[in-house]
Specification:
Layout: E1 2-3, E2 14-15, E3 17-30, E4 35-37, E5 49-50, E6 67-73, E7 76-90, E8 96-101, E9 112-113, E10 116-118, E11 133-136, E12 143-148, E13 154-159, E14 164-168, E15 177-181, E16 188-196, E17 199-207
Amino acid sequence: MEIKYSSLHSLENGLHLMQRVSVTQTWVIDLGPNTTVLDDLGGKPGYWGRRSTTQESLSFHGQHDAEWQFTLDGSVLSVTATSNCYKVTTGPNGEVINRWIPVPPDKIEMPYSVHLRDNYHVGLVEEGPGSGLRLYPNPAANQLIIAWEEEAKSFAVHDAQGKLVASLDRLPAGQRQHQLNVEAWADGLYTVQLNGTGKRQVQRFAKH
């Protein structure tokens, strides 16, 4: 393969012997039943955000960028990204180089983004009329106050993937609020479930 620009990864102009290695990365994300993907799965340019380590860095060869495939099955989004890197083995004068460009296979990154809508429409105040469960501040950064009006037995907090991140059983009689330290939690949406006698209340809040 001929290198035409000497500034490319500090390689000398001329014919180089290279080995192309294809790299594939796959992600499977369960978005949950209350999330809608807004982007068109037809692959229209600009609808999906994507950028690879190799983008625009291997201009001497056509197969330099990454390709992404998005598949949505219900609430499960599957993403497969494929890109290439090259191992330069020898230079124009037969000298040994043994250098990966732009990076070795295990260093290639192919991040992506999708546009989502959470059907709960989390805002500063989310509780509906007559709800006795209040979460504030919402969004929360450091502390979250969970407040309720009626007698409650327990509460639980789950993240967007349904993982239990906090809970408290056997709430003392007469207790009407609890403060949670959420500073170390990852940014995202969380669901608070308050359990009373024959009644369950659910609200969501955002951690930013």
